[in-house]
Design goal:
This protein is mostly helical. It has helices at 6-21, 28-45, 49-67, 72-94, 101-105, 112-141, 146-153, 156-179, 194-213. The chain folds into 2 domains: 6-104 and 190-213, no CATH class; 109-179. It has 9 helices and no strands. α6 packs across α8 (156-179). The two termini are 39 Å apart.
Length: 218
């Protein structure tokens, strides 16, 4: 995996996503450039293939239902462009270490309160998914393996228990944050190395030139 900082990788991913999303429809040649960059990005990050395909498959199915009413030519371009954007961001998200969402947000020009809201929501989702995994393992230990067994095991009472367990664990996490000095404001470090800043500026200019070229007639 590339030895790059998490905020730097996030900004690189956003440059590719924003550049591809702003391409003129249908600029297939320029989209192919972004597709090659997205594929190279996924290979460089060594993304696990199976989870990536599962995630892309579910997302593409939803996008297909939205795009196809717009006509075959336009819909096909929108789907491929969406696939490039999703491949880029999913490659970053699937290689993101646990509990590092705050580090990824530090370099973005967002309001501190918005960053804190995203961070706390992300932490709660991680807790919720952790409790779901524990309940699934408990169901398998009781002989309720597979998707059908898990669905039979799930009921209104179990969903309520899941909510209570995740809420109690969230309270424990919040109390631990208070003991570590949390006072309603998360620590942030907006310093960005000059070398990484120069690389990002250069790549932003390249992406902007590619995107603008899709609107020009040669």
């Amino acid at each position: 995996m590339l030895n790059l900082s998490i905020p730097f990788k996030l900004r690189l991913s956003l440059i590719v996503v924003i550049g591809a999303a702003c391409l003129k429809t249908p600029a297939w040649s320029w989209l192919a450039v972004y597709a090659g960059v997205a594929l190279a990005w996924a290979i460089a990050l060594r993304v696990p293939v199976k989870p990536l395909f599962k995630l892309l498959g579910s997302e593409i199915i939803l996008l297909t239902l939205i795009a196809f009413p717009q006509g075959w030519e336009r819909a096909s371009f929108l789907l491929v462009r969406s696939l490039v954007c999703l491949l880029t961001m999913n490659s970053f998200l699937l290689t993101l270490p646990p509990h590092s969402f705050a580090i990824a947000l530090q370099g973005l020009p967002l309001h501190p309160s918005f960053k804190e809201t995203l961070l706390l929501a992300g932490q709660y989702l991680e807790i919720l998914l952790g409790e779901v995994n524990q309940m699934q393992r408990a169901a398998q230990c009781r002989g309720l393996g597979g998707a059908a067994g898990w669905l039979r095991y799930t009921s209104a009472s179990m969903i309520g228990a899941l909510y209570l367990r995740s809420l109690q664990r969230s309270e424990r996490v919040y109390n631990a944050m208070l003991l570590r000095g949390y006072q309603g404001k998360l620590p942030s470090d907006d310093k960005f190395p000059p070398k990484e800043r120069a690389i990002l500026i250069a790549l932003s200019l390249i992406a902007a030139s590619i995107t603008i070229s899709s609107y020009l007639k040669f």
